[in-house]
Specification:
This protein is α/β, with parallel strands linked by helices. The protein has 13 helices and eleven strands. The model has no long low-confidence stretch (mean pLDDT about 85). About 50% of the residues lie in helices and about 15% in strands. One of its GO terms (biological process) is fatty acid biosynthetic process.
């Protein structure tokens, strides 16, 4: 198997490089073909990898970066004021062919701005979109956009649908069902952008457009790809994660009540733990920036070791599926 090389922005995220490096070490141990380049402050990173086995250390490189993009910085500041940031250098490694993907838990707006500047978009794509897998009753749904584009035109939504469909196919879904997220399934429902996007999608050859879907339909698995603007998508994603965490906490509290509750919990808790693990946000962490001339994966800023591992795994899948090239090959057929 050929090597996969991923550049890691080791300084991004809410908690600094410790959990990022731990996740990177775990992925190296689990995937013999994986090579990682950690970008950040060398002295700090060298200390964190000092106990790594020699065989794994041989597949890990450290590249120096003197600047860090803060989580609250404006994208323009990261773009113009920090040419030596760990985020930018990781992206430049992808641009220069020294890595096949970049993974960062840093500032989302800065990562998008730098990605567009360094890697550029694919021909025919105006804006990249963030996409991630959302658990449903039927399996998973690819939801986009998740926050990269707050205001979207009908043409943007159409492009998102095309990119989401190709991404779902790369992940093994045959003829993905594509839907627009809306406040109702009737043709008269929705704002002007959604209605115009529906008209464009209805006339698209080679795209399996199934119409509008509501939020509950998304979780019933009525579509394989659900498209919306980034404002709606980000609220839906964060609300879903919060709801899953709240329900899990409530159930655990119920089983810590009286004697009967604890007895019932002893029987049910193993199954509930399995369900909780399956739905845990960390397991599904890692949103892909579709539409770029390179692979960029955005991890939650608050992701722990397991969550950042999931983001690296998403990058590995997209490398193996050669996703940007597959997407490029389909755009001429599907874009008007």
């Amino acid at each position: 198997m050929s090597a996969q090389i991923i550049a890691i922005d080791a300084m991004g995220g809410d908690f600094g490089p410790r959990s990022i490096v731990q996740a990177s070490i775990a992925c190296l141990s689990a995937t013999p073909s994986l090579h990682l380049t950690l970008v950040g402050q060398p002295s700090l990173l060298e200390d964190l990898v000092s106990g790594l086995a020699a065989a794994d250390r041989a597949r890990l490189q450290i590249v120096a970066a003197s600047e860090v993009v803060g989580m609250d910085e404006r994208p323009s500041q990261a773009l113009r004021g920090k040419p030596d940031s760990s985020m930018r250098i990781a992206l430049e490694l992808v641009r220069d062919g020294k890595a096949q993907a970049c993974v960062s838990a840093g500032n989302t707006g800065a990562l998008m701005a730098l990605s567009r500047f360094v890697l550029k978009t694919l021909p025919g794509i105006d804006r990249p979109a963030m996409v991630a897998a959302i658990p449903t009753q039927a399996g998973y749904c690819q939801l986009l956009d998740l926050g990269a584009n707050v205001d979207c035109s009908a043409e943007n939504l159409y492009q998102f649908a095309v990119m989401g469909s190709v991404a779902a196919q790369a992940l093994g879904v045959h003829r993905p069902r594509v839907a627009l997220l809306n406040i109702g399934t009737e043709d008269i429902k929705g704002n002007q952008q959604v209605k115009l996007a529906a008209s464009l999608l209805q006339g698209a050859r080679g795209l399996n457009y199934v119409g509008f879907v509501e939020g509950d339909g998304l979780y019933r698995g009525e579509a394989d790809v659900v498209v919306c603007d980034g404002f709606v998508g980000n609220i839906l994603l964060k609300s879903s994660e919060g709801l899953a965490t709240m329900i899990a906490g409530r159930i655990e509290q119920l089983f810590k009540g009286g004697v009967l509750s604890r007895a019932a919990g002893a029987v049910a808790m193993p199954l509930l733990k399995r369900l909780q693990a399956d739905l845990a946000p960390a397991r599904h962490n890692g949103a892909s920036f579709l539409g770029l001339q390179g692979i960029v994966i955005k991890s939650h800023g608050s992701a722990g070791v397991q969550g950042f591992q999931s983001a690296i795994q998403r990058a590995l899948i997209e490398i193996q599926e050669n996703l940007p090239q597959r997407l490029h090959g389909r755009l001429e057929d599907l874009l008007p």
